[in-house]
């Protein structure tokens, strides 16, 4: 699978950096910490990059030499829908998260959430996953609150597509995120995050309630489960490839 030859990475200051699609073997992602894979396949943190003496023999999570393309993908949805969880579940590197404790000041502005929700993303989430050994997805999770919409629009610059997470317990909360994607002309698919207390709904009912076009993919996933979350991303990528093929 191949994505566009170049992916634009937007900063919050309005500047745009282009990311070459060709992965260079031996060149790790620039993160503040180096990670290694243990015997169970999980990623462990080994310390700051400044501690060079401690990293001489430490394996690094490099981009695979077989990778031929890269794409910037948004993960969007209302507050509490599971964006941070999904990115953390699938990321092959230690994900970046900007979770902060919710305050009373924010509670006066944001949509009410369940009492168990005590933190929220205030900037972005970031993770990386390689599909099929050929395509790297750089995942950018957006804040769910309306007051962070300016940052949300900046994050959307250069995105090849988006995965819109939905909670059937409050479908109306997802309307704004889906509307923003349509306004920005960002191709997307929808993943219904199946919470333990969610009631089942038919696909036709969900499509009707969300006012989705017939070609928009709709899948059910569990953001806590790796395989389920990866399948949701594969559904999005397949949709993007089909869309790009039809446009060419």
From TrEMBL:
Pfam families: ATP_bind_1 (PF03029). Coiled coil: none annotated. Gene3D superfamilies: P-loop containing nucleotide triphosphate hydrolases (3.40.50.300). Residues 21-45 have a biased composition (Basic and acidic residues). InterPro entries: Gliding_Motility_GTPase, Gpn, P-loop_NTPase. It comes from the Bacteria. One of its GO terms (molecular function) is hydrolase activity. Keywords: GTP-binding, Hydrolase, Nucleotide-binding. Residues 1-54 are annotated as: Disordered. CDD domains: Ras_like_GTPase. Belongs to the GPN-loop GTPase family. This is ATP/GTP-binding protein.
